[in-house]
């Protein structure tokens, strides 16, 4: 079967021209995780538009999108119900002298949906939410130390950025590392914090860059809860990446473990800028004392988008859909890798895929695989969590598998089995 995509995809003259202009007026041309220089050659930096499961770069190449804007696209680009809610709210007003009624409506819906939540506060980015959680834990306990898993990403603020430039030792002086899914290491970190332990951060699952993903073990999740209960510390679940994709009421619900605070962003408004911190009643008073605010945090448009996103996600049983298409993709990739004599590892939840190759210490096979898929119109990431959405149907998965079959063949030809 011939590919329906215009070939060859990859960055072109319009992308190159924008990069050259950006290089003059933006440090490095692009900062942070969206910098295409971190990706194999051929990946475009600039995009013109998105629709459903598709993206178009500025040179007109079409891609079947498996990054979903690095998570935010939960229902697909330009979901009509979200677009309609956004248009209605934009016509009324977005950034006013105070919040719109959407603020209260969304807070009520969030509290009803998220199992542990008695209240919610809104922000814009995931980093805002995790930073507010850190402040609330400290305000509630009057203590300083925070436990964070080695390799976990909680955002780009000085206290949590993985890149030390521009930070001071003092910014991170009260962080103590532990190994995710290793209760003994968490206990040791808690002991090191002693009476100064304010909180324990844990991600919905272990999704560190470039290594196998891991679901939390029941022992770890329950143990983390027990440590916090025993020592009077705050258990903080970072749901920024996992939001709505694992379980509608919270990622650790299937384990029967509820955090005291949770941080949300990315998918909750289907691509519109919104974050949230949800908390239990025990933290409510502390939350009133912390000055947590921002000029755009109460914007009505993103809240209207979030309400519409919840409506759709609940109506269609979103998680079941993501699992179904995720299993189709994972099974297809496993079959193909076997057929090509290649050993790959697919880890974590099927709805948030990651494909890594055995015997690939420098990530060269992964880069070759992703670049080969990209040239065939499928936008994968070689080492970061990918994201399925409601807009991915069986046809999309089958089309992606056509491209990955050829991409595996390229890897085999270049590196052998
Ligand atoms: C688990 C987790 N926490 C926090 C963040 C920071 O979110 P943001 O980039 O919106 O500030 C991210 C972003 O990838 C994340 O994956």
Could you walk me through the main structural features you see in this protein, from its secondary elements to its overall organization?
With 417 residues, the chain is an alpha/beta fold. It has 11 helices and 13 strands. The protein has helices at residues 13-25, 80-92, 101-113, 126-141, 183-193, 218-231, 284-289, 300-316, 318-339, 364-375, 394-415, and strands at 47-51, 54-57, 62-65, 119-123, 145-149, 175-178, 197-203, 234-238, 261-264, 275-279, 344-346, 355-357, 378-379. The strands form 3 sheets. The protein has a 7-stranded mixed beta sheet, sandwiched between helices. It has a 4-stranded mixed beta sheet with strand order 1-2-3-13. Strand 2 and strand 3 form a beta hairpin. The radius of gyration is 22 Å and the shape is globular. Pyridoxal-5'-phosphate binds next to helix 4.
Quick recap of the structure?
Helix content is 38%, strand content 13%. The protein is α/β, with parallel strands linked by helices.
Query: Which strands sit side by side, in order, in the main sheet?
Result: 4-10-9-8-7-5-6
Helix percent reads 25-40%
Hetero ligands:
pyridoxal-5'-phosphate
Q: Helical stretch count?
A: 11
N-to-C terminal Cα separation, in Å?
Answer: 25 Å
Radius of gyration: 22 Å
Order of helices and strands: HEEEHHEHEEHEHEEEHHHEEHEH
Q: Tell me, what's the shape? A: globular
Oligomer: single chain
Low-confidence stretches: 1-9
Q: On the 0-100 scale, what is the average pLDDT?
A: 96
Q: How many β-strand stretches?
A: 13
Q: What's the structural blueprint in terms of helices and strands?
A:
Elements: H1 13-25, E1 47-51, E2 54-57, E3 62-65, H2 80-92, H3 101-113, E4 119-123, H4 126-141, E5 145-149, E6 175-178, H5 183-193, E7 197-203, H6 218-231, E8 234-238, E9 261-264, E10 275-279, H7 284-289, H8 300-316, H9 318-339, E11 344-346, E12 355-357, H10 364-375, E13 378-379, H11 394-415
Parallel strand pairs: 3-13, 5-6, 5-7, 7-8, 8-9
Antiparallel strand pairs: 1-2, 2-3, 4-10, 9-10, 11-12
Helix pairs in contact: 2-8, 3-8, 5-6, 9-11, 10-11
């Amino acid at each position: 079967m011939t590919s329906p995509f215009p070939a060859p995809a990859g960055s072109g003259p319009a992308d190159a021209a924008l990069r050259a202009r950006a290089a003059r007026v933006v440090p490095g041309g692009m900062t942070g995780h969206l910098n295409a220089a971190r990706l194999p050659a051929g990946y475009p930096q600039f995009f013109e538009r998105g629709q459903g499961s598709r993206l178009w770069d500025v040179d007109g190449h079409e891609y079947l999108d498996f990054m979903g804007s690095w998570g935010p696209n939960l229902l697909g680009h330009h979901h009509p119900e979200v677009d309609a809610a956004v248009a209605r709210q934009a016509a009324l007003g977005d950034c006013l002298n105070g919040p719109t009624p959407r603020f209260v409506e969304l807070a009520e819906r969030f509290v009803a949906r998220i199992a542990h939540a008695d209240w919610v506060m809104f922000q814009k980015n995931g980093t805002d939410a995790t930073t507010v959680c850190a402040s609330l834990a400290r305000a509630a306990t009057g203590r300083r130390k925070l436990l964070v898993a080695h390799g976990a990403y909680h955002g780009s603020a000085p206290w949590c950025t993985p890149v030390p430039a521009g930070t001071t030792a003092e910014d991170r002086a009260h962080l103590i590392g532990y190994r995710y899914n290793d209760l003994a290491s968490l206990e040791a970190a808690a002991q090191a914090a002693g009476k100064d332990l304010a909180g324990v951060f844990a991600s919905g699952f272990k999704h560190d860059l470039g290594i196998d993903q891991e679901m939390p073990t029941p022992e770890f999740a329950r143990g983390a809860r027990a440590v916090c209960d025993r020592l009077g510390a705050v258990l903080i679940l970072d749901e920024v990446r996992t939001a709505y994709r694992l379980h509608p009421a919270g990622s650790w619900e299937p384990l029967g473990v509820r955090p005291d605070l949770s941080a949300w962003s990315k998918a909750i408004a289907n691509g519109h800028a919104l974050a949230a911190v949800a908390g239990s009643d025990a933290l409510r008073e502390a939350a009133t004392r912390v000055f947590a605010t921002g000029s755009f945090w109460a914007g009505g448009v993103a809240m209207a988008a979030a309400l519409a996103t919840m409506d759709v996600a609940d109506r269609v049983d979103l998680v079941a859909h993501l699992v179904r298409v995720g299993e189709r993709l994972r099974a297809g990739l496993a079959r193909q890798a076997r057929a090509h004599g290649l050993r790959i590892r697919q880890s974590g939840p099927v709805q948030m895929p990651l494909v890594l190759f055995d015997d690939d210490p420098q990530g060269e096979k992964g880069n070759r695989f992703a670049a080969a898929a990209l040239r065939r119109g499928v936008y994968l990431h070689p080492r970061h969590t990918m994201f399925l959405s409601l807009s991915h149907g069986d046809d999309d998965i089958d089309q992606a598998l056509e491209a990955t079959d050829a991409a595996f063949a390229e890897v085999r030809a270049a590196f052998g089995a």
